[in-house]
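User: Before I run my own analysis I want an independent prediction to cross-check against. Here's the chain; please return only the structure tokens and, at the end, one sentence I can use as a sanity check.
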Amino acid sequence: MHDLTEGKPGKLIFRFATPMLIGNVFQQVYNVTDSIIVGKFLGKEALAAVGASFPLIFLLISFIIGIASGSTIIISQFFGARDEDKVRKTIDTLYIFLFFASILITILGIIFSGPIFRLIKLPEELIPQATLYMNWYLTGSIFFFGFNGTSAILRGLGDSKTPLYFLIISTVANILLDLLFIVVFKWGITGAALATVIAQAGAFLTTVIYLNRTHPLINLSWRKLDWDKQIFRDSVKIGLPTGFQQTFVSLGMIALLRIVNDYGTNVIAAYSVAGRIDGMAGLPAMNFGAALSTYVGQNIGARKMDRIKLGLKATLNMSIWTAVITSLLIIIFRHELMGLFVSDKAVIDIGAEYLTIVGSFYIIFSTMFVVGGVMRGAGDTLIPMFITLFSLWIIRIPLAAILSKYWGVHGIWWAIPIAWFMGTTLSYIYYKTGIWKKKSLIK
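Assistant: Structure tokens:
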């Protein structure tokens, strides 16, 4: 556990964000490994099927993850206020919620996956493989929610290192299982999903065993979990806007996929691969924003409001320089990066065009996430939700549909940075109003 209320803000946030960033890189390696091995050994059709399943998977889990984020904010504020009893009750309440939510998500996903793929007009030849991958992947929902919930709890307590160690081990296991199931056993796309499920299960179970023996505030035992209605209400109050935001973002991803699907398998595969690379490139910004949220939550809990502006300035400086370097690397090595996943030249060229356009604007993306991190840490998630939905549904998706009629797939790609610019502008304007300062649970 780390106290973020004392010391130089920039140093604290960097030290806290770095393990989170490394951990999320390894989390992404789960998906990237699947894509590389699937693309190389099973072909671009299987690669497109895996890529098409992820927006739907994200749709199913995003609302729950959003609700859970409210608990993380509460944990950081109670921890900053030194109220350990409330911290323990919040942790217990979160685990109970995630357990039952994971069961519901698994059932809904397996029932509706096929119909939804047909609704968004995924090419018929891709639907069987996409449905098969998704259904097997969802059998591990309880482990996915468990591990990510535990990681979020530890971040709220200021510990960003412990989840990293177990995640590295599980990622290595995932790579080995991918090769075993796909290359040796010839289990096809089912093997890719099973490798991820087993790796996630191992990460969650080993983390729980370790924490039960070593952590003073976490002791996961189903017989001793304490459900607190008021804390759950507060968690929902804070997390519900984020849950809705994540849900509508995932629906937006599906809407964009629907537009992309009209261009055939090559574009779907390229969009899938470039999206994975794009997701990796955005990790520094998202983790700096998440670290800043915990920093803001703890300092609000400790009533040290003067430190928040210093933390924002330091975080913006770090994230902007990181974005510049990332943009240069992505643009320079765009063809080589695409070539890691697939050998088809047409797919590589399409993905390289995406990375050239979108990769040029990571500074805007980084600024948007960092500024939003201040409001989230304060517990103000409603207005950021509206800003995100406006930039996605009023700007990005309509622009993608309109511009694609004139510029083809390039129009879809250009809609992405334009939406980032709108989201960044509105977030900064709201930050300057100072309204978010009044949303803390600690009075």
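Sanity check: DSSP finds 16 helices and no strands in the chain.
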